[in-house]
Amino acid sequence: MIYLIGGPPRAGKSTLAHMLLERAGIPGCPTDTLVSMLQNAAPQHGVRHGTHPDKAAPAQPFLVEFLRAVADGLDPSDPLDGYVVEGDIVTPAAATAAAAHGLPLATVFLGNTALTADDLRIAPDWLGGADEAAYEQVAAWVTEQSRTLRNACAAGGHVYIELGAGYEQGLERAYSVLMEHA
Description:
Helices cover 50% and strands 13% of the residues. By secondary structure, it is an alpha/beta fold.
């Protein structure tokens, strides 16, 4: 099973991936690795880090091919064999495209429509000592991305879990949703 976790930055994707590793022994990787590789080795494809709104679109074909390779490496006779792929390029469109290939997927999207600048300061190194305006701008952007994601999930029949109303409870719910497929 491939466990896909998508959502905007700072939504809890890596935390959920670590929960899957620690509790169920399911390894994985962040899509930042794929983005870095493509940005550095094949810049002509336009895949790059950042908060630009079209970040995921040029990465989607590469992500789907990566997921196909992951699926090829899974042992179909072992129902516990799995791999986690998490990142902000995991979108409802990418999940739908991967599912169209018949890949064994369990997918959840995390969002936080209540994220504040103070929430971002919990990991101050993430914004590299930015000023107050940058923290406010990024918090607003993540909030808007979460709303957009929530709507896309509703339209496409994907599971969206809001973490703004209870972070720990939301992560536990997301974990349960993914493990239902194990």
